Protein 1
Amino acid sequence: MSRTVLILSSSPRIGGNSDLLCDSLASGVEAAGNKTIKLHVAHMNIAPCKACEYCHEKSKGVCVIQDDMDQVWAALEQSDSIVFASPIYFFGCSAQLKLVIDRLYARYEKMNLQTGALLLTCAADEDVAESAKIMYRKIAECCGFQDKGIICATDVWAAGEISEKSVLREAYNLGKTL
Ligand SMILES: Cc1cc2nc3c(=O)[nH]c(=O)nc-3n(C[C@H](O)[C@H](O)[C@H](O)COP(=O)(O)O)c2cc1C
């Protein structure tokens, strides 16, 4: 049966390095006969978690905030796999991705994801990506999905600079495994 992979592309630069990694991964997913849903979360209206506990104490998983996170939940309901994609911003993931991750708090125990992956881009060496990798692995553990791989493209600064790099092929191959 065909599987669906949700890709959360979180750079504000559509067509930038992490977004191009997403597209290569998506080609791999589709080559394997599966489907993708891609959301540009940096261009969605997603507010930060208020820590009000409404989702846990009153509503059984529905967040009190009504915004574009509803589109993420709708996509998650159809998805078997999740891909987080982010540029490294000051040794972590983008704030735009972190907003979505924190909002998963409402229903993280009820997600039916089986697999996941992480795509990162940075201007420097891979050691700047340590905290983003740790966060992702802990999320996988906490949400109960199997990590299928982490790709970190290094030495890419300007938007699109990644396009000549072999890491795009790695993302394509990773997409085939999801
Ligand atoms: C606010 C900001 C912070 C950044 N911090 C880092 C950093 O800590 N380490 C690094 O190697 N690159 C850093 N970068 C560079 C980006 O990670 C790099 O340009 C990346 O390829 C951007 O991906 P994108 O094209 O998908 O937006 C930063 C860029 C911005 C705009």
Protein 2
Amino acid sequence: MSSIPFHEIPTPCFLLDEKLLKKNLELIADVAQKSGAKIILALKGFSMYSTFHLVKKYVPGTTASSLNEARLGAYEFGGEVHAYNVAYLENEFDEMMQHCGHITFNSLAQWEKFKTKIEKNPKKISCAIRINPEYSEVETELYNPCIPGSRLGVTANHFDKILPEGIEGLHMHNLCEKDSYALERTWLEIEKKFGFLLSQISWFNMGGGHLMTKEGYNHAHLIDFIKSIYIKYPNIKEIILEPGSAFGWRTGYLVSKVLDIVESGGKEVAILDSSISAHMPDCIEMPYTPQIIGAEIADNSTFSYKMGGLTCLAGDHVGPYSFPKKLTEGDIIVFEDMMHYTMVKTTTFNGVNLPNIAIWKENNSYQLVKSFGYDEYKARL
Ligand SMILES: Cc1ncc(COP(=O)(O)O)c(C=O)c1O
């Protein structure tokens, strides 16, 4: 149970608990050290750069899925910047090469297009191709990179027996909030389909989706699995994991306030000063129902409410939740686990303000990092 005095936090607010982030970072660094894997932060999942001074004490770098993320990695994090972009833009590639030491291409054609630039670049950049293992255990289609017809990665039938000259690595990403057993099963598929390439590479990037900070994750199994690959393929000098979610997993909250309670069709809805669709869109996209501190995800009490967002999108709501007492205007609602894939995905639809970004520091003090207003809304239009 958190000891943060949520009722004192100006709302709406994405509030990171520094000590929980540190706990995740310690665990991630320990797995990296024991397994020999290089673990880097996927900025697409967690880009709260006000924490990077801390994160970079534990991991050596970041991975970017666009030039802007590569800039953020280079300017705000430092260390290694890796990149995998679905496609690179001609007019951005020179700058991409400035920032990145590892670049992964999504297709053989993209590699052909940019390989001369790579060869001529004075700085050594190590390049890879993303493979599509045509195997994934991700249940939600939206998050499954291996559905038939997926544009993500090259399937085995497109490769010649020998990798294109200049390609030193392979990259795959097919997990989403999965354990190391799903990774192991994926690897068996990769060996079956891409085994002929595995002796030709010096590094393998196993993408993200490794939720190693979730309770119950078997770290010893992941560590043994990675070590076994190093032993089986002595040519593979570096195994890279690039999770995003695992860093931010259960490290903070979206703190909101009840503005109104409306009744409709016998059901009550608490209207919040935040938005499900604009501030926590995965709840609608996935979809899933986030936990609220002190409430149950259920419709089984006298005090059952849906949480309604501030936009006029009809579906901007989540729940129902059962509370131990009647909700009233001014009550504080604290959504749990709101650090990953939230701040990076927010919108200002309807002109709704973005939540503040703040940190609950280890010394129990509140640090406001950023608040947003008309300027940020206007700047995007
Ligand atoms: C290529 C790639 N790497 C890493 C990640 C991070 O995954 P996660 O945040 O689930 O760990 C993603 C997520 O979509 C991805 O597409």
